[in-house]
Design goal:
alpha/beta, Arc Repressor Mutant, subunit A, D-Maltodextrin-Binding Protein, domain 2, 3 domains, eight-stranded mixed β-sheet, two-stranded antiparallel ribbon, elongated
């Protein structure tokens, strides 16, 4: 004979009491009496044939069985809560998970996220950051914004914007730079693409030079080091406009080198969902 289902109220009373280790505080959270919480927990214990709490003079302690039950019950309520949030406005929100290279996320996407949300209120955007190393399938990503030449196996890549590279440094350090050759006496902060400084010096007419300095896997952190006066970074100026406009960062020379591009990517085998298509159209429109 099948047992009747366990009442949701009993599980809610147990979960709240377990978090607070108090029937009284659980009752306050649930807007019921302390006796009601105690009754629900006792009914749950009777239904399971287990003791979930040890009643102590100054509160409660979970038994081993209570500890084991708390995790799945708490997780279940959180998952229900997240799902209900997706129904706000009378329509199911579509989850969209996008991984974004950190420099582009901070320098371009974050200032525009509010506008995207207002334009697409039924997209539940989940944004992750990456250091340009992305596995769309393994990470369960819908889209990824990355930097490079767009040649990634099995990936559909659409260009968003060019990202020409140029030296960036603090105002104090910039005052010591009269011509590109002066950079040879400074600490050069190197991006993970080791050839970028060499390409810039070639563009500046200095030919092949020896480049030494700390290596960074994040352009955002590298430029922050430059702002703090630790050396000269080579990065896309367009991603650091607020710091340039505020005078915390200086572009000492107008010379740039092509570098790479930012690309919006998805698996070729993946049919775009409505949310993916909406984000793609918005991103391409905004980066024109």
């Amino acid at each position: 004979m099948a047992h009747p289902p366990i009442p949701l109220n009993a599980l809610r009373a147990f979960e709240a009491a377990a978090r607070h280790l108090s029937f009284t505080r659980a009752a306050q959270e649930l807007c019921v009496t302390q006796a009601a919480v105690s009754h629900q927990v006792k009914a749950l214990e009777a239904r399971l044939g287990l003791t979930l709490f040890r009643r102590l003079p100054r509160g409660l302690a979970l038994t081993d069985e209570g500890v084991a039950l708390l995790a799945p019950v708490s997780d279940g309520f959180q998952r229900i809560g997240r799902m209900l949030e997706r129904f706000e406005g009378g329509r199911l929100k579509e989850v969209l998970t996008v991984s974004v290279v950190g420099t582009f996320a901070a320098g371009w996407l974050l200032p525009r996220l509010q506008a995207f949300g207002e334009e697409h209120p039924f997209i539940d955007l989940r944004m992750l950051t990456n250091n340009n190393r992305v596995d769309l399938a393994a990470e369960g990503l819908d889209l990824a914004i990355r930097y490079g030449d767009g040649a990634w196996h099995g990936v559909e890549a659409e260009p968003l914007m060019d990202a020409p590279l140029t030296p960036l440094c603090s105002p104090e350090l910039a005052a010591r730079l009269g011509e590109p050759r002066d950079l040879l006496g400074q600490t050069l902060l190197r991006p993970y693409r080791g050839q970028d400084w060499l390409a810039w010096f070639e563009a500046a007419g200095l030919g092949a030079v020896a480049v030494r300095g700390p290596l960074f896997d994040s352009s955002w952190i590298m430029v922050e080091a430059a702002i703090q006066g630790l050396g000269v970074a080579l990065a896309p100026a367009a991603m650091f406009r607020p710091a340039l406009e505020a005078g915390r960062l200086v572009q000492p020379f107008a010379i740039t080198t092509p570098g790479g591009r930012y690309w919006l990517t998805r698996l070729k085998s993946r049919t775009p969902s409505p949310a993916m298509q909406a984000f793609r159209d918005w991103a391409l429109r905004e980066t024109v």
